[in-house]
Amino acid sequence: MIYRIILGAMLALPLAGHAQKSLLQSGQLLKDIRILSADSLEGRLTGTKGSIMAQDYIINRFKEIGLQPYNNSYKQAFTFKSRSNEAVEGTNLVGYIPGKSDKAIVITAHYDHVGIRKAEVYNGADDNASGVSALLAAATYFKEHKPQHTLIFVTPDAEEMGLQGANAFLDNPPVPLQQIILNVNMDMLSINQKGELYASGAHHYPFLKKYAEQVKPLKHAKLVLGHDNPEQGHNDWTNQSDHFRFHQRQIPYLYFGVEDHDHYHKHTDEYKQVNTQFYPDAAALVIEFIRIADKNLDAFPERKTN
Question: 262 CB contacts (<8 Å, ≥6 apart)?
């Protein structure tokens, strides 16, 4: 049975027919997105004070949850060239939960946004404080319910500047690329009035469809497959977020997100726009897919390599 996030005294997640309570308190998911999209973080533009503040908050949450760092640090620093050919320093944040095998699922949600424009703070509540907060919820759940395989949680930097953080992570991965069996990417989960969360990627990796279809609808959110066929033009999301860097390396992915809305890349993408009924259920759908994928990872087809 798929678990349901209930905004009550506790966040209850029914799992496999048993009502179990996660470590996540009822308000933690919404607290995380509210803090990460606050004006004080100044839009989390890569290389700014606001970005550093976001890093500090996420690292503290990693520690609270109990994620392990690689090489005694959650930070993965990298440098890239901007469109104006200037050197920019970025910082990915990486933590993991060891499983019973070296096979790994990498769960990603970029934490950067576009900063301040014309004196307006672009808070990026949906894009992508929502993904990061759901990633933290997933980490909390799987810290309590040990996965069969290693789960690597990554909040890439500089997604808005050309998927730079995801590229840097894969250029210098903490484990051999061959051990990374799947990428689950979250980018924009919290604003939708139709109760639809899209899972994009099964067109490229058809074997994922049967696992995504095992994720049952919740009261306020259901999973819809699509937005991954090149014939869809701009409605094909294959290269629209960090999962594309995994796809380029033949690593299967499933990308969870909502369709564009009126607040996308506007200063109105604020916490007050978050659909507080849809968003928790959307996060729960992703967590359930990760659970199903982890359970079935050994049955995944051997992936192609360059």
Answer: 268
Q: Tell whether the model's pLDDT for residue 19 goes beyond 70.
A: no
The DSSP result for 71-101, as a single string, is: TTBSEEEEEEE-TTS-EEEEEEEEEEE--SE
CA distance 222 to 151: 24
What the block records as the tokens of 61 is 């949450």
Structure tokens that stand for 124 in this block: 């990026």
Interval 249-264: pLDDT, tens: 999 999 999 999 999 9
Whether the CB-CB separation of 109 and 186 falls below 8 Å is answered with yes
Measured over all CA atoms, what is the biggest interatomic distance in the chain, rounded to whole angstroms?
55
**Residue type at 291 in one-letter notation:** R
d(CA 53, CA 50): 5
Question: What whole-number distance in Å separates Cα of residue 53 and Cα of residue 42?
Answer: 9
Q: Cα–chain-centroid distance for residue 1?
A: 23
pTM, to two decimals: 0.92
The domains found in the chain, sorted by start residue, are 27-299 (3.40.630.10)
Q: How does pLDDT run across 135-175, given as a tens digit for each residue?
A: 999 999 999 999 999 999 999 999 999 999 999 999 999 99
The two tokens of residue 187 are 């980018």
Please state the length of the chain.
306
Give the long-range contacts of residues 228-232, CB within 8 A, separation 24 or more. 228/200, 228/201, 228/202, 228/203, 228/204, 228/255, 229/203
Nearest-angstrom CA–CA distance, 184 and 300: 14
Radius of gyration of the chain (CA): 18
**Closest Cα to residue 150, out of 191, 109, 107?**
107
Closest by CA to 135, choosing from 57, 19, 210, is 57
Dihedral, 273, 261, 237, 198 alpha carbons, nearest 10: 60
Helix axes 130-144, 49-65, angle to 10 degrees: 20
